[in-house]
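Closing statement on the farnesyl diphosphate sub-project.
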Amino acid sequence: MDSLLHHIEKGGLPHHIAIIMDGNGRWAKRHNKPRVFGHQNGVKAVREVTEASAELGIKYLTLYAFSKENWRRPQAEVNTLMRLFVSTVSKELNTLNKNNIRLKAIGDLERLPKRTFEALKNAIESTSNNSQMTLILALNYSSRWEITEMTKSIADQVSSEKLGIEDINEEIINANLTTHAFPDPELMIRTSGEHRISNFLLWQLSYAELVFSDTLWPDFNREDLYSCILEYQRRERRFGMTGEQVVKS
Ligand code: FPP
């Protein structure tokens, strides 16, 4: 089969892709297996999409792995997911280093179980000098939580007179978000046919192209990723300008 890779315009790649990995539970159900089987098979897709993105030259890839709302799931499923994060991050450490991938995380990390937090911290430290791509895991993350924390931090700087109210602008807001070191994603992909943002990067996705794939996450492979990038490349990004202005610039 002719890979969609050959149709991608290399000069027009997004610098940052963010993905809501959805559909693990439904995938497991289709295979008559418990939900955790879906998460275990989701790891294969994480590996493939990470590898394909790095090979393409994507600089930042953010994966929504666990939201603050996900704590409401059955305790056994939460425990399995936390163990899966520890084992995957530890097992993949060599591969990350071999492929020159730097690991980062966003979210309320200190409230993760100690073992998950420690495994993550260790992988982040040991990959910190890698430069081909930055893989960002959103863990115990929700955008409203992040925006609330940003607001508290700015209010604190104002009340201690480190910052004046008149100095607050988009740059200051960006600097106080957990994503301050990363550019905004130009492309957001959600799998499994759901058309929602689900409290993910609400500020940062302001101008992103949203691409929805019907594929359930464990089946999502590099060709699905290429297909989403091609859809992104077919769209015209206007940033509030007219179509004619975009063509000229
Ligand atoms: C959503 O599917 C998936 C999750 C909440 C967990 C994502 C975790 C992985 C892909 C496993 C490993 C990840 C890393 C980064 C090591 P769902 O359970 O909501 O599916 P459903 O909507 O079909 O129920």
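The chain is about 45% helix and 15% strand. With this model delivered, the sub-project is considered complete and its resources will be redirected to Aim 3.
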